[in-house]
Design goal:
Layout (H helix, E strand, L loop, with lengths): L1 E8 L3 H16 L3 E8 L6 H9 L8 E5 L8 E4 L1 H12 L7 H28 L3 E5 L5 H11 L10 E6 L5 H14 L4 E7 L11 E4 L12 H22 L5 E4 L5 H11 L8 E4 L1 H15 L6 E2 L2 E4 L5 E4 L4 E3 L12 E3 H4 L3 H20 L4 H16 L7 E6 L11 E9 L2 E4 L7 H21 L16 H14 L3
Helix pairs in contact: 1-3, 1-4, 5-12, 7-8, 8-13, 9-11, 11-14, 13-14
Length: 491
């Protein structure tokens, strides 16, 4: 099969002659295909790039080359209109007898048609209103993994275009430009545009969604936890007023990352009082997924069948992985049932010593495991929460999200605390009807203490973290004892 590419200026009479001859060959020869590229006269410089890529020497309109469909590789240059006429005469015994006046008339028609088509395309583009998504600290690996998940249509739907804006400091400008080029090369149909930004004053313009990935390095040898918290507060103190000023009034803000996820959400609300509090959440899905995978490995089953694991408290700090409501679907055991038949996870794990030792040890190391993820897990977590927020979470399924407390489960008001929610109709709702034990309630109180301390340090009301009680060495040690009681049922 022969495939010819005929390219030229819209107002070029020789291009008109070449394209009509090519149309005639395509209509009368069974294995002849033509691809036409019409360019505005002012945009003919694109030819330089084409010729440089293929090693050709050609400067005039039109240019005709043959694509080697059967062999691959670069195209075979035929040349200009006279070269094409000779090619058609030699191989097919066909030529063009078009007169100069006809060529000029057709060239004028081509230019008018090109201008009208270009105008229609611009009008169509102006009607498209893509979701404006801003990602901070966009040089992070999580952002790199997140972009394909956002652009492939699975998160927002196959009819929603998106524009992605990557924000980071000037030192990462080359990294951002590389990400932009790679995303453009992938040619996602729903990716309307992607751009890099290093000027903070331009941040969050017309934003529908803001994904905050900023992290601070937690190294007690370099600086204290208190100084790290104040560093996070300073970042949010810059972001929040810009969100109020530049973003849309109903912007949705997602806090993710490896450190101080709850605190970032909390301080954005604090420094941006006009931002709707119900539109700011912290992502706990990475910790959910890691806990589910730990359970699945023990039970030798698929982690997708483990549901309703709850992450309470400070997502990237002191938290509690609650299995008391967790269920197992599709488990191959002595009792068979339909695919939607659930079994309590704790009933399926007969080895209580494993829960007492290995799972608690694994739970203690979850923060370390998640913190060392290269980006795939947290990116999937952000994409999952966004999909639920826009399209609803699976019916009856529990999702853990950090939200502003309003007295639910007797947790003090005014902190961002991870708790069980459901997403429906574009909103989330805390599952307040969930029953929890008195011991769990005690654990939640101690988890809240750490978040209150972080908030007070961020607001410069205290300097460093203080333990929950004078008699405990650390709150985490006490929590470990409480969690052992909850999971094993021992007094």
């Amino acid at each position: 099969m022969a495939k010819l590419v005929v390219a030229g200026k819209a107002n070029c009479p020789y291009y008109a002659k070449a394209e009509l001859l090519a149309d005639y060959l395509q209509a009368n020869l069974p294995d002849f295909r033509v691809h036409k590229i019409t360019q505005h006269p002012d945009k003919w410089e694109w030819l330089h790039d084409i010729c440089e890529t293929n090693g050709w020497e050609h400067r005039q309109s039109p240019i005709i080359w043959r694509e080697l469909l059967d062999r691959g590789g670069k195209g075979l240059l035929l040349g200009g209109v006279n070269d094409f006429l000779e090619y058609a005469q030699h191989y097919y015994g066909i030529t063009s007898m078009m007169l100069s006046e006809e060529m000029l008339d057709i060239a004028e028609e081509n230019l008018q048609a090109y201008i009208e088509i270009e105008k229609e395309e611009e009008e169509i583009k102006s009607l498209i209103k893509p979701l404006q998504i801003w990602i901070t600290s966009a040089s992070a690996p999580t952002c790199y993994q997140l972009i394909p998940l956002l652009a492939n249509g699975e998160v927002f739907g196959m009819t929603t275009d998106i524009s992605i804006h990557l924000l980071d400091s000037d030192q990462f400008k080359e990294v951002l430009c590389g990400i932009v080029m790679e995303a453009e090369d992938m040619a996602f149909p729903l990716l309307h545009s992607i751009s890099a930004h290093t000027e903070i004053d331009e941040a969050f313009i017309q934003a529908d969604i803001i994904i905050v990935l900023d992290d601070v390095v937690l190294n007690c040898e370099v600086q204290s936890v208190g100084n790290s918290i104040r560093e996070v507060s300073d970042i949010c103190q810059v972001y929040a007023p810009l969100i109020e000023k530049n973003a849309k009034s109903d912007v949705r803000v997602i806090s993710s990352g490896k450190t101080f996820v709850n605190l970032k959400a909390m301080m954005i609300m604090t420094y941006g009082p006009s931002i709707k509090t119900e539109n700011v959440i912290a992502v706990a899905t990475s910790w959910e997924s890691a806990a589910k995978a730990t359970l699945a490995r023990k039970l030798n089953t698929n982690a997708a069948g483990v549901k309703d694991v709850i992450v309470w408290g400070n997502i990237t700090g002191c938290n509690y992985i609650d299995l008391s409501h967790s269920k197992l679907y599709g488990y191959n055991c002595a009792i068979w049932g339909p695919a939607n038949f659930p079994r309590p996870v704790l009933n399926m794990i007969y080895d209580s010593e494993w829960i007492h030792s290995e799972f608690l040890s694994a739970q203690s190391s979850l923060n370390s495991r998640v913190s060392h993820c290269v980006g795939m897990l947290p990116a999937h977590a952000v994409a999952t929460v966004l999909r639920y927020w826009y399209h609803g979470s699976p019916p009856g399924e529990i999702v853990s999200v950090g939200v502003l407390t309003e007295g639910q489960f007797c947790v003090p008001d005014g902190i961002v605390f991870s708790m069980p929610v459901r997403f429906q109709n574009g909103n989330w709702k805390v599952i307040t009807e969930l029953e929890i034990s008195e011991t769990t309630q005690e654990v939640l109180g101690r988890l809240a203490h750490e978040l209150i301390q972080e908030k007070l340090i961020a607001l410069r009301e205290i300097k460093e973290m203080h333990p929950y009680g004078a008699d405990e060495i650390t709150s985490k040690n006490y929590l470990r004892e409480e969690v052992e009681t909850l999971l094993t049922g021992s007094p």
